């Protein structure tokens, strides 16, 4: 669970910071680009943390049809953990740019 959080967090944070560096090198406003990228990378942080595909969602459907709910709960916890990591990365970029939490 912690792994999913930090993978999603790292994708958003690292992508936004490196995108800001690229914006600086191409003479574009880096803070604006960082914030835009952080929001756009949120979904990709989740997808990357969950293994690069939406396999988790297909597994949930398959398990519900079988009637065994334990793997469903596990996958939902992984998805929530990845979402929280991606959202935390986005909020951290916004905090670094604005100096205040949003």
Task: Describe the overall structure.
The protein is an all-alpha fold and 102 residues long. The protein has one domain. The protein has four helices and no strands. It has helices at residues 2-25, 30-49, 55-66, 70-98. It is elongated. This is YtrH family sporulation protein. The chain crosses the membrane at residues 6-25. Keywords: Membrane, Transmembrane, Transmembrane helix.
- State the helix count: 4
What is the β-strand count? 0
Percent in strands: under 5%
Count structural domains.
1
Q: So what's the overall shape?
A: elongated
Mean pLDDT across the residues is: 87
The biggest sheet, with number of strands, parallel, antiparallel or mixed sense and barrel status, is: none
- Tell me the helix content: over 70%
Find the structural class using helix and strand composition.
Answer: mainly alpha
> Can you tell me the residue ranges where pLDDT is under 50 for at least 5 consecutive residues?
none
Backbone CA Rg? 16 Å
Secondary-structure element pattern, one letter each: HHHH
Head-to-tail CA distance between termini: 26 Å
Keywords: Membrane, Transmembrane, Transmembrane helix
InterPro entries: Spore_YtrH
Pfam families: Spore_YtrH
Organism: Aneurinibacillus thermoaerophilus
Layout of helices and strands, plus pairs?
Elements: H1 2-25, H2 30-49, H3 55-66, H4 70-98
Helix pairs in contact: 1-2, 1-4, 2-4, 3-4
Transmembrane segments: 6-25
Keywords: Membrane, Transmembrane, Transmembrane helix
InterPro entries: Spore_YtrH (IPR025689)
């Amino acid at each position: 669970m912690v792994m999913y959080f930090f993978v999603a967090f790292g994708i958003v944070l690292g992508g936004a910071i490196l995108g800001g560096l690229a914006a600086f090198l191409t003479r574009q406003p880096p803070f604006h680009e960082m914030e835009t990228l952080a929001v756009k990378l949120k979904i990709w942080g989740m997808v990357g943390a969950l293994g690069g595909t939406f396999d988790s969602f297909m597994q949930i459907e398959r398990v519900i049809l079988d009637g065994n709910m334990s793997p469903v709960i596990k996958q939902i916890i992984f998805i929530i953990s990845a979402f929280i990591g991606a959202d935390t990365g986005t909020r951290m970029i916004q905090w670094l740019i604005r100096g205040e939490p949003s």
